[in-house]
Write a structure and sequence with these properties.
By secondary structure, this protein is of the alpha/beta class. It has eight helices and seven strands; from the N terminus they run H-H-E-H-E-H-E-E-H-E-H-H-H-E-E.
């Protein structure tokens, strides 16, 4: 039976993605996590209204597929590599959905470079990527520059200080699956959990960076959300 790991100190996660199998395994893992993002994605759609939406991050898991299932929108998805983009496009095709998929190193476009210097969005979102960014504050500033007036940035990620009862239940449930895929899921979740920020750390990061108009709040028992709204 899996037990909760020591979470006192953050240990940045490493998720290997050098082989086709590693990329496909990670893609399936994040796709499963994406199925629990319905409330977050509905907030993204509400923020965007009829405007275009940008997804930033690794691209693995094809979270935009879940977004498009919830509502019609113009979606641009940025992936960290051509490999991730190919998996994203495959998920879209299998679901019979359409989006514009881009490949940008790091999964975060530069708003000062073509073609992003001429594109702005009503909502910019990211999930499962905040803890992987080497400089999260710099990325948040970059995402904010991609907004239309009145637009919103919404960022969701696992937190290292989750509800202990929900965490224990989740670990037990994952440990019950002794298949190769189940063992991968548990191992990758634990690595992600150790590499996540606590809510207090996320708030301290925003304060230290002078991002005083950004809010970090608990968003369910296992995650937090960071939100920012540009003035109209």
């Amino acid at each position: 039976m899996a037990t909760a790991p020591s979470l006192a100190v953050r240990v940045p996660a490493r998720h290997p993605r050098s082989s086709d199998k590693e990329r496909q395994d990670y893609d399936r893992y994040l796709a499963e996590r994406g199925r629990y993002k319905g409330e977050f994605l509905r907030e993204v759609l509400d923020a965007a209204g009829a405007g275009p939406v940008l997804e930033a991050g690794s691209g693995y898991g094809g979270l935009g597929v879940e977004l498009l299932r919830l509502g019609r929108t113009e979606l641009h998805a940025v992936c960290e590599s051509e490999h991730a983009a190919a998996l994203y496009e495959r998920r879209l095709a299998e679901a019979g959905l359409r989006a514009t998929v881009h490949s940008v190193p790091g999964g975060v476009p530069d708003p000062a470079r073509h073609p992003w210097n001429t594109r702005r969005f009503a909502a910019v979102y990211s999930a499962n990527a905040f803890a992987a960014w080497p400089d999260p504050a710099a990325v948040l500033r970059r995402l904010a520059r991609l907004l239309l007036p009145g637009g919103q940035v919404l960022v969701s990620d696992l937190r290292r200080d989750p509800d202990p009862f929900i965490l224990e239940y989740s670990l037990r449930e994952m440990a019950d699956d002794t298949s190769e895929a189940g063992r991968y899921r548990l191992r990758t979740f634990l690595t992600s959990l150790r590499g996540a920020y606590t809510l207090t750390e996320a708030r301290a990061l925003l304060t230290a960076a002078g991002l005083n108009d950004w809010r970090a709040e608990a968003d369910g028992p296992m995650t937090f959300a960071i939100r920012y709204g540009r003035n109209p």
